[in-house]
Amino acid sequence: MKLLWSPKSPFVRKVMIVIHELGLADRIELVRAVAVPRGEPNPVILKENPLGKIPTLLVPGLPPIFDSAVICDWLSNLSADGESLIPRAGKPRLRQLRWQALGDGLTENLLLWRIECLGADGGDAEVIASYRAKVRAALAGLEDEAGELASAPFGIGQIAILCALGQLDFRFSQSEWRRAHPKLTAWSELQADRPSVAATVIVNDQGPDEGPIMNLTFGED
């Protein structure tokens, strides 16, 4: 199997955490691929994924598999431990899938916000305000659920949320989101030493990439 991959992608990180949790790392070859959010799509990715996005998993005898949720679900069927990450039925499944949707949605908002800020004149103020409001609301909701995140078995939901918080640290390091969300911070810091989480920290391995400064202050408009 081959995974179209980048160390800067939060959705790739989500898949990589699942790979480590399930002990599948030695079965998957990582192929570096750079997705292009603005401009001409990367033809290498576009050949395998018509959406031009990563992660994309290539499995002999199967069509390319995407997006991260589908890849993680498919991988969970390759290991006896898969059901621990993605329960097959009942309230545990609903809880994990709901958290996954929240984590993925938060990540998507952060990515779109950054893309908007890369536009002319720093982006549209109303669009940016909308992203900021959604991110704040998502973090407030996660703060309220931090206790349940800690007590529930570790699964795809917590993985998706950790990847979103990692994206905050990577692209919004000036936001001080941790100060405004102490319970969520405490939970995320406890997870930082988990081997699968520590092994997949988002890094920029291709030199400086400062990008725009995005305001994500709390307690003010």
UniProtKB/TrEMBL annotation:
Residues 1-83 form the GST N-terminal domain. Keywords: Transferase. This is Glutathione S-transferase family protein. CDD domains: GST_C_6. Pfam families: GST_C_2 (PF13410), GST_N_2 (PF13409). GO terms for molecular function: transferase activity. It comes from the Bacteria.
